[in-house]
Specification:
With about 60 residues, the protein is an all-alpha fold. The protein contains four helices and no strands. The chain has one domain. Helix 2 crosses helix 4. This is J domain-containing protein.
Length: about 60
């Protein structure tokens, strides 16, 4: 797994995409979530976390961390 942000979420391989999104939202600072100007960046971050999770599931990696 190469994405350190995804590793910090601490999710298991069997987590659902919804659980990944919930963890990604909680990982962001409340001020970052509140600013409307960061909306595009937040959506990109959420997509990256979902893609990293899908890649991990496809690879069959065991949980680390």
């Amino acid at each position: 797994m190469s994405d350190p942000a995804y590793q910090r979420l601490g999710l298991s391989e069997t987590a659902s995409p919804y659980a990944v999104l919930r963890a990604a939202v909680r990982a962001l600072h409340p001020d970052t979530r509140a600013l409307r100007t960061f909306r595009t960046a937040r959506k990109r971050f959420y997509r990256q976390m979902l893609c990293a999770h899908a890649a991990r599931q496809a690879a069959g990696d065991s949980p680390t961390g």
